[in-house]
Design goal:
Order of helices and strands: EEEEHEEEH
Helix content: 10-25%
Strand order of the largest sheet: 2-1-5-6-7-4-3
Largest sheet: 7 strands, antiparallel
Oligomer: single chain
Strand content: 25-35%
Number of helices: 2
Number of domains: 1
Structural class: alpha+beta
Distance between the termini: 23 Å
Radius of gyration: 18 Å
């Protein structure tokens, strides 16, 4: 195997997980986390309106490298399709784990669905596949969802302490 390929002995930049199959993204070149907040109309009423907290989206650009790049591409396509209907573990968790899990050094997010997924290949770099995806956060209603979000912050803090 050429030395330019990412070795499977290193930690990936991100892992997208559907509860059964983890897909490592070895070379994440860009990640953007967007949160949009709904604001009530100014001067509309003197009463406060209960609004949803916010909508989160994550844009991710990565490169699939090495001899397993076509397998990872197929796995990404499969979990993207599965995220629309719920993952394999959704019926077994009572609706708590209804989406994908993304683990990166910047964030740990649960209950994600793939909004868009695209692949590009170039003749100059035949041994790589560029991946661009947009993930949307679709939490189920309830206070337990907030607890899972706070727990993911703790998990993220623990992963920062790992030696690799």
């Amino acid at each position: 195997m050429p030395s330019s390929y990412a070795s499977n002995l290193h930690t990936p930049s991100a892992v997208l997980f559907d509860g059964i199959v983890p897909v490592p993204l070895w070379a994440v070149t860009q990640m953007a986390i967007d949160a949009s907040y709904a604001v009530p109309a100014v001067g509309g009423s003197n009463r406060r309106v209960a609004l949803p907290t916010h909508d989160d989206t994550i844009g991710l650009t990565a490169v699939l490298l090495g001899p397993l790049r076509l397998e990872w591409k197929a796995m990404l396509e499969n979990i993207a399709e599965a995220s629309r209907y719920g993952t394999v573990l959704s019926p077994k968790t009572g609706g708590l784990g209804t989406g994908l899990v993304l683990v990166t050094s910047a964030t740990v997010r649960t209950n994600l669905a793939v909004q868009s997924l695209s692949f590009s290949l170039t003749a100059a770099r035949q041994d790589t596949i560029d991946v661009t995806m947009r993930l949307i956060h679709l939490p189920p209603p309830g206070s337990l969802t907030r607890l899972l979000d706070v727990t993911s912050i703790g998990v993220g803090a623990l992963t920062d302490r790992l030696p690799f």
